Amino acid sequence: MDPLDRITESSLKFAQASRKAWANGDDEICNEMLSTHVNFLIDELMGFIPKETRKCKVCHCTELHPCPEGCYWVGAELCSSCA
Ligand SMILES: [Zn+2]
Ligand SMILES: [Zn+2]
Fold it and tell me: Is 56 in the same domain as 72?
């Protein structure tokens, strides 16, 4: 599926579900859904950023210049060496 379609679909689902939870007064569920959705969005959006500009915020390694021992992404801006 196209990433944009995935984002749209997930956002619609989230909007419906959170509205329902909100109406029921389930603040906690609502917050939880929000953070799950935000994480999903960050992951998806990171896919749009050219690989060479993604950078670890701790050691500043990149996809093209990873840490000497090798690393992978564990967060939007965090590599496995610094996790
Ligand atoms: Zn790092
Ligand atoms: Zn690294």
Answer: yes
Phi then psi for residue 54, to 5 deg, are -75, 130
Distance 71 CA to ligand 1 centre (A): 8
**What pTM does this model have?**
0.58
pLDDT digits (tens, 9 = 90+) for 20-65: 999 999 999 999 999 999 999 998 888 887 766 889 999 999 988 9
Residues in the chain: 83
Domain limits for position 11: 3-46
Domains identified in the chain, total number: 2
**Residue 70 CA, ligand 2 centroid: distance in Å:** 7
How close is the Cα of 14 to the center of ligand 1, in Å?
Answer: 32
Phi, psi of 9 (to 5 degrees): -60, -45
Q: 61 C-alpha vs ligand 2 centroid, how far in Å? A: 5
